[in-house]
Amino acid sequence: xxxxxxxxxxxxxxxxxxxxxxxxxxxxxxxxxxxxxxxxxxxxxxxxxxxxxxxxxxxxxxxxxxxxxxxxxxxxxxxxxxxxxxxxx
Amino acid sequence: xxxxxxxxxxxxxxxxxxxxxxxxxxxxxxxxxxxxxxxxxxxxxxxxxxxxxxxxxxxxxxxxxxxxxxxxxxxxxxxxxxxxxxxxxxxxxxxxxxxxxxxxxxxxxxxxxxxxxxxxxxxxxxxxxxxxxxxxxxxxxxxxxxxxxxxxxxxxxxxxxxxxxxxx
Lengths: 89, 168
Prior knowledge:
Chain A: It comes from Zostera marina (Eelgrass). Chain A: GO terms for molecular function: 2 iron, 2 sulfur cluster binding; iron-sulfur cluster binding. Chain A: Belongs to the BolA/IbaG family. Chain A: This is Bola-like family protein. The complex is a heterodimer of chains A (89) and B (168). With 89 residues, chain A is of the alpha+beta class. Chain A has a single domain, classed as GMP Synthetase, Chain A, domain 3 (2-Layer Sandwich), CATH 3.30.300.90. Chain A contains 2 helices and 3 strands; from the N terminus they run H-E-E-H-E. Chain A has helices spanning 5-16, 48-58, and strands spanning 20-25, 33-39, 68-75. Chain A has a 3-stranded mixed β-sheet. Chain A starts with a helix and ends in a 14-residue tail after the last strand. The relative contact order of chain A is 0.22. Chain B is of the alpha+beta class and 168 residues long. Chain B has a domain at 60-158: 3-Layer(aba) Sandwich (Glutaredoxin). In chain B, 40% of the residues lie in helices and 14% in strands. Chain B is built from 7 helices and 7 strands; from the N terminus they run ααβαβββαβαββαα. Chain B has helices at 2-10, 23-29, 60-70, 87-98, 112-122, 140-149, 151-157; strands spanning 33-34, 73-77, 79-80, 83-84, 104-107, 129-132, 135-138. Chain B has a 5-stranded mixed β-sheet, with helices on both faces. A two-stranded antiparallel ribbon of chain B has the order 3-4. The N and C termini of chain B lie far apart (40 Å). The chains are: A alpha+beta (89), B alpha+beta (168). At the A-B interface, helix 2 and strand 3 of A face strand 7 and helix 6 of B.
């Protein structure tokens, strides 16, 4: 069936101790593709590619089943600037 | 594996980006496609070279190393630049096109061994995979991020001053 959103959330929470984590199953619940936003102090001092590699590494086992992983954000808490829920015109 | 690899590198879809593609060039370049020219899809079997590499020791690692060394911008993608087969590959190509640099590509959907070989080479599990000046950059998320931050402009116009495609 594939990996669940909860699986991905659990693994990343455990591996990265994020202060913010958002996982969206973009395959309509099939667990085939996910979009991720993750904020973690573990990213401190790491370049973009390395930050992505860290996320990939945490999900290495799951990547065998996941077809697509989109890491929208992988930043340190100091770089995190969430879009406000109320859009300003 | 050698025979399959030989078959991979012998399917020649070569644009006229380089001077006259010789048979030997076809053997070396394989299914590498160049965005900057219109592709005549497919080469008739009669014109394909016979297997010269069946006994060679060329590995997939060698193919990838050669690809990224010889092409300033190299993308391993699903489909081809003119017809990407997935949204992420399409996005990556669009971002690179916006920088006006010649794009060399291989369609990993055509060859499972190539697909596995590239993943092993870059230690990266997904496609597309973009290399610039021999350096692994990442996937579509990263290339988009770098485009937005200006970092991609630095890469493509920086120390190697990549040649730019004519518009149109």
